[in-house]
């Protein structure tokens, strides 16, 4: 399977009305990869993306070894590379459709155990590789993930597992797979997506 492209989206809600949906995750965590590929992608096909400020925070259970000042990732050095590459993609490809498509491709490969083939995603999606690699090589990617580390450390309550999903500062904890229903419930603007009519009843 190749994830060729996400549908073009238009903005139907003002920025202030949109619901903040944040995902804190590890790039090689199987549960995180599955959530991104199988669940979160749905926001692009059900018009939910039009009412969401989607934020991806690739840090998760990583930590900084203070004695060596080095980053240690739960699933090893390859995860540190992907965390940094995905942070770079978010920063360089600011359009959510573009950076999400790239991250989807990376995570799809991770599910298949082919995460080392991440470079192939740029060609399959027609996205520019150079600016993302320049960010990674320059060290800017490391600075970006350290900002994500600080943000993750400030979560209140602290995250206890990943994927950790937060809707308007409300952590969903074990309910994270029902994130769409919580987004619909939190949305106060007009023109809610049709899918919200059936979703909100799931959590009332």
Automatic annotation (TrEMBL):
<protein>
    <recommendedName>
        <fullName>Gamma-interferon-inducible lysosomal thiol reductase</fullName>
    </recommendedName>
</protein>
<keyword id="KW-0325">Glycoprotein</keyword>
<dbReference type="InterPro" id="IPR004911">
    <property type="entry name" value="Interferon-induced_GILT"/>
</dbReference>
<dbReference type="GO" id="GO:0016671">
    <property type="term" value="F:oxidoreductase activity, acting on a sulfur group of donors, disulfide as acceptor"/>
</dbReference>
<dbReference type="Pfam" id="PF03227">
    <property type="entry name" value="GILT"/>
</dbReference>
<comment type="similarity">
    <text>Belongs to the GILT family.</text>
</comment>
